[in-house]
Design goal:
2 copies of one chain form a homodimer.
Chain A: H1 10-18, H2 28-39, E1 45-49, E2 52-56, E3 64-70, E4 83-85, E5 92-94, H3 98-114, E6 121-127, H4 138-145, E7 154-157, E8 165-167, E9 171-180, E10 184-185, H5 195-208, E11 213-216, E12 219-222, E13 224-232, E14 238-239, E15 242-251, H6 257-267, E16 272-279, H7 289-302, E17 306-308, H8 315-320, E18 325-327, E19 342-344, H9 345-360
Parallel strand pairs in A: 3-6, 3-7, 7-18, 8-17
Antiparallel strand pairs in A: 1-2, 2-6, 4-5, 5-19, 8-18, 9-15, 9-16, 10-14, 11-12, 13-15
Helix pairs in contact in A: 1-3, 3-9, 7-9
GO molecular function (chains A, B): acetylornithine deacetylase activity; metal ion binding; succinyl-diaminopimelate desuccinylase activity
Organism (chains A, B): Cellulomonas humilata
EC number (chains A, B): 3.5.1.18
Chain lengths: 361, 361
């Protein structure tokens, strides 16, 4: 079994985590190593569900915070083992997982080991299956199987934010715009009605659409509405009688799924619109005093900014439990999933210092 | 082995052919029956290549005509065995193959048996694999393997024409219009460029396109240009970086494949257009004296009209050999391949009488 030394320096710990591959569905080895490493600390109660590991303090503080990160990564793209490029303040750690999100996990593990008496009781959560279909998500499974393991007054997800603070997240929905026509042999096209040509109007409306920017609790959420898939036709000699345009609407957390669906229906008025998938956004929750304390403490150290999170993230799962939650972690989110994924070493150190400052002040 | 009685009445012969299923690829039994039936006639030389059967007279006439039909059908749609509905002049034979094209084959077989001394030497061709990919086509195979079996001064394909005469055929080409974009996570759509949205302009041009009607040798060919397939996108959370629209252009036989390709390129100026498949059309050839004789003889009997053939048919194979060729046969071509495929019995009788008049006068 791989072993992790939580007392080593942050860079070495991050590399050890990255160099232990854990593509979604294959997190057993890293979960075993994390569980084993944490079990050595007397101030932590260590729990396990599938390949998720939870470690929590019981110091009797009046408040409890949840600090969570996922152990899995997207598939490796010939970018492991990690490589350290550059020196000193410019050094960057290259490789799969450095940004999304094993640098964040390293910060969590180091602090879990070190902070025997944090100023809030802390529940450290390490979970599986974040990078795949939502119904497999390990945090979702914990919420279902052991809701008591993940409750708290405030939650932090250590997803990459460049050391800034990202609050809430956009909601997302997918809908199919279904066009119907009349099939005919293409040698006698005038006997049919072309469903693909009918999709031209759908694409025209998408092209003309101006996505909104919506302010929610002081943060600006940038929306988008795009065709992500299109498919039509049955054979190269048949006038197509069906075409489906799948659109993805990313909407500000001030709108409900119902309101967002209605917006899409209005845009495609006159067309057959079928909702196929939706998840609500999460308001940033930065009006909550715990969140404000957190923001002051960590941004004071990193000098990062407060911004809206665009992508749907697991903060929405906390939001549904009524727990205010934010994203805060090392690494540039734009480099997540990229072949040239890499994280400045300085950001890992700074994120560690910032969380440490918050949990010790 | 199934047996065919070529001396029976036309309706019974048509039914016997239809009730012997021969979906493309499964023509062995019907080819065996046709070969066996023709072999009984001393005035015919019978040849075989795969599941194609050729029977020809050698009476020493100065001219030879080729009269061809295919033995295969599209898949059965619960429409066999045949049913006779209605009586007398209104009777119709319902079922797979009645139109496309076993009524025509029945007319061929009856005349092949009966006409021991036709006014032109006749090569009767019965071939396989017409309803599937062009490279499997039995007539094409005969042209490659035994060109001497299919040469003549004039050719008739007994495809359904409602008893009229259809000359030549449109050419056909397929091209892909390929749109490129830049992939991005759909939560940050503004980082990418949507290739599906770009297809909107392609569909807009198709929608605005007015197909031409082109007169060739006195017949009017109706063209068409349609999107037949569209496909784009890789996943429901990714801004698509590629979209392909497959268009099918059916063009009048006065244009070459090169000219037709250029027309498509001009229409989609500014886009990446890749030709994937093309077949030239065939001019009607009705300026040929043999064709004019034929038209006078058969239309005098059926009262049918002379018209352009829109779909690409095997007459183009004769055209490429320099043999003028036309379509003439019983049945409404619009009912070919339909579940309710059916042929008026009167048309079968009339087609037989018309070809008989031509070959005996």
């Amino acid at each position: 079994m791989a072993t992790l030394d939580l007392g080593t320096d942050l860079l070495s710990l991050t590399r050890a985590l990255c160099d232990l591959p854990s593509v979604s569905g294959d997190e057993r080895a890293i979960a075993d190593a994390v569980q084993d490493a944490l079990t050595g600390y007397a101030h932590l109660e260590v729990l396990r569900d599938g390949d998720a590991v939870v470690a929590r303090t019981h110091t009797g503080r009046p408040s409890r915070v949840v600090i969570a990160g996922h152990l899995d990564t997207v598939p490796i793209a010939d970018n492991l083992p990690t490589r350290l490029i550059g020196e000193g303040a410019l050094a960057e750690l290259w490789g799969r997982g450095t940004v999304d999100m094993k640098a964040g996990v390293a910060v969590q593990l180091a602090l879990a080991a070190e902070l025997t008496e944090p100023t809030h009781d802390v529940t450290w959560v390490f979970y599986d299956h974040e990078e795949v279909a939502a119904d497999l998500n390990g945090l979702g499974r914990l919420v279902r199987n052991h809701p008591d393991w993940v409750v708290g007054d405030f939650a932090v997800l250590c997803e990459p934010t460049n050391g800034g603070l990202e609050g809430g997240c956009n909601g997302t929905l997918r809908a199919e715009v279904r066009l119907a026509g009349v099939a005919a042999h293409s040698a006698r096209a005038w006997m049919g009605r072309n469903a693909i040509h009918a999709a031209g109007e759908v694409l025209r409306r998408l092209e003309a659409y101006t996505p909104a920017e919506v302010e929610v609790d002081g943060l600006v959420y940038r929306e988008s509405l795009n065709a992500v898939l299109i498919s039509g036709g049955t054979a190269a000699n048949v006038i197509p009688d069906a075409c489906v345009v799948t659109v993805n609407y990313r909407f500000a957390p001030s709108a409900s799924v119902e309101q967002a669906t209605e917006h899409v229906r209005e845009l495609f008025d006159g067309f057959d619109v079928v909702l196929t998938d939706a998840a609500p956004g999460a308001r940033p929750g930065l009006d909550d005093p715990a969140a404000q304390d957190f923001a002051r403490a960590v941004l004071g150290v990193t000098g990062g900014v407060l911004a809206a999170k665009y992508g749907w993230t697991d903060v929405a799962r906390f939001s549904e439990l009524g727990v205010p939650a934010v994203n805060f972690g090392p690494g540039d989110p734009l480099l997540a999933h990229k072949d040239d994924e890499r994280c400045p070493v300085g950001q890992i150190t700074l994120a560690h210092a910032a969380l440490r400052a918050w949990l010790t002040s």
